[in-house]
């Protein structure tokens, strides 16, 4: 594992964007796994700047997002599809039909998840997977559990995640209670993994995830078993490491 502590959020974002830009430049037809949340907004901004500067192209890239709320239409302004359109896809030259987000509008959870897992396999598997880190150690929406879930599946969100995400909805009652997410097995099969975390409120979980024991109680800790992981945090998130 490569563990990098950047000076601040902007430096973390630039360093993480450089890893992605480097991967796309050296593998132009790669499969990128992408994440939503507050943490990657800055790095997506850096990638858009690189594209606008003419030094980066996504024209042959395929993407798969980690997760989506179950029950939200892609047009809903809190759906992860909407987030990706707004923060990255609509600003760069990625082909719309090569971007994938689990179908939150599909009520048949088993069908939606199986179709997603199959689409990833048909694309040749994930190349570089970007991850944020939940306060409880979740990656994607893989919450602390008795074991590590293998494939894309439907999860019931924990109180901690519902509370954390309620800041983005009108009220906590509007936060969906379920989501479709890649499994830990799906994520661990990626060739490379890049994790970003920012802020003092992530310091404890960053330390537990990357320097504590590997346990499904802290889902991100499984990344210690991956042969090609880069973790980039800002000084505040890295304060206990
Ligand atoms: C987002 C995702 C989540 C977030 C995590 C951290 O697609 O899968 O695991 O990465 O909840 O979110 P932020 O960055 O908002 O702290």
Question: Would you kindly provide a written description of the structure presented here, covering whatever features stand out?
Answer:
The protein is α/β, with parallel strands linked by helices and 241 residues long. Helix content is 30%, strand content 17%. It has seven helices and ten strands. The protein has a seven-stranded parallel beta sheet, with helices on one face. α1 crosses α2. The longest helix is centred in the first third of the chain and has 18 residues. It starts with a strand and ends in a 7-residue tail after the last strand. Bound molecules: fructose -6-phosphate. Fructose -6-phosphate binds next to loops.
From the structure above, extract its key features.
seven-stranded parallel beta sheet; three-stranded antiparallel beta sheet; single chain; 241 residues; 7 helices; globular; alpha/beta; binds fructose -6-phosphate; 30% helix
N-C termini distance: 14 Å
User: What's the number of helices?
Assistant: 7
- pLDDT < 50 runs, ≥5 residues: none
So what's the oligomer here?
single chain
Ions, cofactors, ligands: which are bound? Answer: fructose -6-phosphate
Main structural class:
alpha/beta
Radius of gyration of CA atoms, rounded to a whole number: 17 Å
Report strand %.
15-25%
Mean pLDDT: 96
Number of strands: 10
Helix content: 25-40%
Overall form: globular
The main sheet orders its strands as 1-10-9-6-2-3-5
Question: The biggest beta sheet, please?
Answer: 7 strands, parallel
Q: What is the element string, with H for helices and E for strands?
A: EHEHEEHEHEEHEHEHE
